[in-house]
């Protein structure tokens, strides 16, 4: 098999596609590759070092040495995870990397990887090498003790891999070859075929395969029904989608958490808020709690919430009550506010994301989209306010962007920092863990005892010294100061930066639009070279002036 791809294994020249190597292709068809990449034991930093070394190579021989050294020094799981990542990204180095993997002593042929490599070869213009790889793979399966089921599964993987790259005609060729082979056998084969047909948007053929599966004695499960129903939903065939969903109960499938979430995902695929709302209420009556996955795809299907979380405008709601109120007044989708409110009536997702102990309470945002993370943070703050006692430390775990659409861009962390900062939260980025925001109990208790709200319009703001808006003003000011001083810390004894020196921020309790450049310079000077110093701040406000005192160790 290595011979089949040898002709195209020379290191490819840089291409526009290669320039976007860090960007992950978000496509359902690469779900199997994604699972291999995520759970394969490969270090993200190790993969980044590999990519960096490959980008610096100038000759095919140098790139080959880098790849072979990586494969030889890593475990089987780590090397296969790196291969899966390269294939997901359509990286041109995936082909020589696959060649190196096939020569490793631990190599075992994989249907998923072979199909993905064949599709990448053909999409890059190497059709002859692609066909040779496919032919050799099928011959290998026939020559060994492999069952006909494994050959059928390979055809299904080829359908998925080629259709995901826009080569629908070739995918249909593989479907024809699959049907021309001996009759399908096994539940796994039927499931793979149904999934591939749905990826190709062939809902009718997928439903026919579902019926054939049942007629051959393989009882379909909620997963297979969900695939077909979502395929109809994405095509806009709502009546057909409803019919397939209804047929689940006729097939004797009990409505548990898995089946309920699959039905919910069908409605989210076509953004039918009314049906989602009705289904969530039915789940509540049946005492079926929403899961993290349900929380994600319901909120991701809410356009107004998505816009808020992405734009982070000045009027961003900072509590669940404000969020629902704004949705009722601003959302063009009438059921969106009710849908979000219904989702918030259950604390199952929050309870699972929170970890309480005597020493720490931790909110784990791993696995949440930025939209879902925004809503969960609001729900979490409400829950924290209701608690009478807190452990010694409070933290929010956000990650550093390993699973972002663009790897290394920590979108969830950026959102959490911004939202909590606007609330006046004392949580700051940990110096030891860049994917974690942390604060001590006493500071969090003081923060939770205050009140905050979203900024109001300029016209309605009372700027008088005795106005009732002093608290929002102070929170806004401290947020700006916090952004300026972030990373320097505030935990050590301090002395004045300049004895007797204070910085006037402007006229009383009016608006402070910017932190003066003089203060920024003083912060940099106090921090010292490398930015390792610690600063303290003291803010004095009167009706006529706002004064800031800066301190350092």
Automatic annotation (TrEMBL):
Report any Pfam family annotated for this entry. Answer: PPR
Q: Specify whether Repeat is a keyword of the entry.
A: yes
The segment annotated Disordered runs over 1-21, 452-471
Give the domain of life: Eukaryota
- InterPro entries per the UniProt record, alphabetical: PPR_rpt, Smr_dom, Smr_dom_sf, TPR-like_helical_dom_sf
Matching SMART domains: SMR
- UniProt biased composition (Polar residues): 462-471
Give the PPR repeat ranges: 186-220
Going by the UniProt record, its keywords in alphabetical order are: Repeat, Transit peptide
Question: Member of which family?
Answer: Belongs to the PPR family. P subfamily.
Q: What is this protein called?
A: Smr domain-containing protein
Annotated source species? Oryza barthii
